[in-house]
TrEMBL record:
Its EC number is 1.1.1.44. Pathway: Carbohydrate degradation; pentose phosphate pathway; D-ribulose 5-phosphate from D-glucose 6-phosphate (oxidative stage): step 3/3. Signal peptide: none annotated. Keywords: Gluconate utilization, Hydrolase, NADP, Oxidoreductase, Pentose shunt. The keyword Transmembrane does not apply. This is 6-phosphogluconate dehydrogenase, decarboxylating.
Amino acid sequence: GTAQIGVTGLAVMGRNLARNLARHGFRVALHNRTHSRTESLVADHGDEGTFVPSEGLQDFVASLERPRAIIIMVKAGQPTDDVIDELVPLLEEGDIVIDCGNAHYADTRRREKELKDKGLHFVGSGVSGGEEGALNGPSIMPGGSAESYQKLGPIFESIAAQVDGTPCCVHVGPDGAGHFVKMVHNGIEYADMQLIAEAYDLLRSGLGVSPAEIAEIFKEWNSGDLESFLIEITADVLAHIDAETGEPFLDVVLDQAEQKGTGRWTVQSALDLGVPITGIAEATFARSLSGHAEQRKAAAATFDQPADEGFVKDRQQFIDDVRKALYASKVVAYAQGFDHIKAGSDEFGWDVDRGAMATIWRGGCIIRARFLNRIVEAYADKPELESLLVAPYFAEAVSDGVDSWRRIVAAAAQAGIPTPAFSSSLAYFDGLRRKRLPAALIQGLRDNFGAHTYQRVDKPGSFHTLWAGDASEHEA
Ligand code: NBP
C-alpha cells in the first residue's frame, strides 16, 4: 500500500478531516460503509490532494503503508465498536487504530486494552472545532501510547490549528486521556455558553434594550480580556434579524437548549472523582430545566412575574459589573475544569500537562480565547498550581471583580433573573476562600446520629463524643 493514513467514516467530520490531510500533502486512503459517500468525496474534492478510495474494507487496509494508521470517524458508541471489530482481523502487529469520534473515555480505555492485547495501538483522540475545524485546523487531543504518537504526531500537528507557530495538538497521555480531556473541554464549553447566556439575560432585562444593542456590548467586550470565539459569535447571533418576521432572531427561537451528552458525562465523572465542577454542573442542569416545558408552563402560570424590565439605574456601572462577573465566573469554570483534568490524570495515572492543554485549546476549538494564554502562563510558573484561582494574574482579576460579582448576583436575585452559573461560581469562590466553613457542624451531626467520628483542629486522630451519654470525648 502507498497511502500514509486512512479515514473510514466519511460523513461530514470524516470527509473534512480527510480533505484537511490531503491538503497537507498526505496520501489518504478512503473508506465508508456506504460507498457513494467515498465516491462523492473524490468527485467533489479529488483535486485537493492524493486520495486512494476503496469500496471494501480489505482493499482499504491493503492500500495503506505499514505500520498502518487508520482514523475511524463514525457515530460514537456501538458503530465504533462494529467498525473496530471488522477492522481488527485485517490488521497486523504495530498498526494504529485512531478513533476521532466523540467517544466516552471509559470506552476508549476498554478498546485500548483489547487492541493492545492483540499487538495493536489504539488511540482515542479528541477532535474539537466541528466541521469547520476538521477542514481548516482543529484542536486535536490524542491519547494512546507514546510510540503511536511518534508516527501520528507529525501528521496531526501539521493538520491542527496553529497559534503563534505552535500546533494545537499534543500527546495528552495514555489510553483514555485524550477523550477525557476532550470531555472536560466540552464541559467547559457548556459553562462558558451558560455564563454568556446569563450575561445576556441580565443585560437585556436590566437595561431593557434590544438584542442588537446588547450585540454592541459584546463586540466591545471582545476587544478586551474576554476576547474569544464564543463572545464573537454571541455578538453575531444577538444582532441577527429573522428574515421571515423581521423580529430579533433570539425572540423567534424556542428557549429550550439541548444537551447531547458530553456535559452529562463530565458531571458524572466529576461526581465519581469528587471534583466540585459546579459551573459545568449548573450549566448542564440549566439546559435540562429549559427543556422541562410542561413544568415551566405550570410554574409561570402559578407565580407572579417580578417586574424585572429596566431595573438598572447606572447603565455603565451595570455593564461593567456584568463584564467583571462574567470574567470571574469564567475563571471559576476553567479552574474547576482543570481540577477535573488533574483528578482524572491522578486517578488513571496519565500525567496530563495542564498547561499543554490550555496551549492546544487556543486555536481550532470552540472555547478558543485570549484568556487561555494566561492559563498557559499560570501553569508554566507553577506546574502543580493548587487552583487557577490562586495564580497571581487570576487572583488579581477575581479580586478586582469581586464587588461587581456580588452586586450582579444580588441584583439578579432581587429581580428574579436566574443566574445559576454566576451565582454558583461566586458561592464556589467564597467556599474556597473562606477560612472556616460550616463543615465542622456536618462532622458534628454525623458523629451525633451515626458515630461517624470527627477530626479536631488541635490534635491528630479521630474522635467520637458520647452524645447520648455523659458527652465525654473518646479517641476512636
Ligand atoms: P455521524 O456521527 O453522523 O456518523 C455517520 C457515519 O458513521 C457515516 O460514515 C456512517 O456510515 C457511519 N456508520 C454508522 Br452511523 N454506523 C456504522 C456502522 N455500524 N459501521 C460502519 N459505519 C457506520 O458522523 P459525523 O457527524 O461526521 O461525526 C463523526 C464523529 O465525530 C462522531 O463520533 C461525532 O460525535 C463526532 N463529531 C465531532 C464533532 C466535533 O466538533 N468534534 C462534531 C460533530 C461530530 P454510512 O455513510 O454508511 O451511513
